[in-house]
Amino acid sequence: MTLKEIVKILGCQVVVGKETLDTEVRAGCGCDLMSDVLAFIKPDALLLTGLNNPQAVRTAEISEIKVICFVRGKQPSEAMIALAREKEIAILTTSLPMFEACGRLFKNGLIGCSEYDE
Amino acid sequence: MVDEKEITKVQELVYELKVGQVMVKDVITVTPHNLMSELRDLLRDKRISGVPVVDKGRLVGLVSIEDFIKCLTDGKMGSPVEERMNRNVKTLYDNEPLVHAVKEFDRMGYGRFPVVDRESGKLMGIITKGDIIRGLLKKMEIDYQEEEIHRYRASHFFEDIVADKTTLIFQYNVIGKDFDRAGETSSGLKKTLRRMGISPKAIRRLAIATYEAEMNIVVFTDGGEITARVTPQEVRVEVVDSGPGIPDIKKAMEPGFSTAPDWIRELGFGAGMGLANIRKCADAMHLESTVGKGTRLEITVYLNEKEKHGSGNDS
Q1: Contacts of B220 by beta carbon, 8 Å cutoff, 6+ apart
Q2: I need a surface site. Which of A31, A44, B143, B263 has the fewest CB within 10 A?
């Protein structure tokens, strides 16, 4: 699934990465616990999270995630935006709550990380 | 709003490059005393649309194909160039940044600008939009090649070293309780290892393990040190702090066991998965701790694919 499709399905605002909307996302992971993200997420997956702090961006960088989508309308800070831009990580925001955001993507065919074989 | 702040490589280069670096230096010129009729062969043979007029090295005017056609219709081909040329020539200086040239091309709509020396007014060259594009492409190619050479050198570092045993050591200081900067060490180490051409899978495991360890230093101590020792066979990351220490290592290793305060949990950590994660990523893990003195953790990832990896032994 491309970033463009995700933006459409979740009605996202693109905060960082307008030029990377053709990026292919292979799986999704919805999680607020960064240690769990580090333990289970696969490279090139989409991270949906309600955790709105710089560690979300750091965790994405360390685990090779190219896209973060903040749920429930959370807006990332300037520091997070700067960090994401430096690390070339796209940031989206959606007003949908976590469960609904995940559900819509799953219904449209985006698989979970446990189903995705590297 | 975000896009305006983005600076592309080309934007960077138009500020870095000078007009003199991309202009054509070998300029065809005429003198004020040349006749307009002599221009015909010049414009046709050289396929150019305008010629700077130079008197004793100084630029005095510009005569273009339009001037030539006008002269032809007026039937004044016998007149000297100085009578038909444009004396009010907009020029650029050879030492001004290319971005000024780009702006002038946009503003004036001209096809070319003569380039003169700022002090003497001497003609140094001529510049067209094509020259700007060629200059930028060439510079980008050079930069790209340099980058490639750097990468190649770094990734073949071990091959070029003559020694019986080689170990590279990278050391990082981690500041305690500084959540905004937490992760910088792991990020820096990751970048460094990538430069060295180490396999992406090994880097990923090392980065995750180091990040968890770094978070432990930030959360529980006032600071510590992370040292990575890289050999052709393995990367060993040593994490040392002088924090409170771990009373029961066996218990601390259990997934889900946590002593993290609530504010850490609010930041997305402290779920008791850190050490378990590190063990999962490492080929070997060694943890020792003394309450009141500090903790020392050693994480090893083998670089040889044949060595077993994942769910390391702890000792």
Answers
A1: B241, B243, B244, B260
A2: B263
Instruction: Please report the ipTM that was assigned to this predicted complex.
Output: 0.86
Q: Residue B278 has what pLDDT? A: 94
**CATH class name, domain B3-135:** alpha beta
Residue B70 one-letter amino acid: K
Going by pLDDT thresholds of 50, 70 and 90, the confidence category of residue B77 is confident
A86 touches chain B (CB under 8 A): no
- Kindly report the nearest CA distance between residue B183 and chain A, in angstroms: 6
Classified by CATH at the fold level, domain A3-112 comes out as: 3.40.1390
- Supply angle C-alpha B186, B212, A14, rounded to 5: 70
The CA distance from A104 to the nearest CA of chain B, in Å, is: 24
Show me where the domains of chain B are located. Answer: 3-135, 158-314
Whether residue A54 and residue B180 make contact (CB cut-off 8 A), yes or no, is yes
Alpha-carbon span B90 to B112, nearest angstrom: 10
Phi-psi region of A73 (alpha: psi -120 to 50; beta: other; left: phi over 0): left
Residue A11 token pair: 């009605």
Residue with tokens 């990380």: A113
E strand spans, chain B? 50-55, 58-64, 92-93, 112-116, 123-128, 168-175, 223-230, 234-241, 284-290, 294-302, 313-314
Pairing mode of beta strands B58-64, B50-55: antiparallel
Q: What whole-number distance in Å separates Cα of residue B244 and Cα of residue B124?
A: 70
B275 near B299, Cβ under 8 Å? no
Tell me how close the Cα of A17 comes to any Cα of chain B, in angstroms: 9
Task: Domain B158-314: give its CATH code.
Answer: 3.30.565.10
Q: How many CB atoms lie within 10 A of CB B60?
A: 18
Closest by CA position to A31, among listed A79, A78, A63, A75: A63
Q: What is the pLDDT of residues B101-110, one digit of tens each?
A: 999 998 888 8
Residues B244, B128: Cα–Cα separation, whole Å: 68
Instruction: Give the domain ranges of chain A.
Output: 3-112
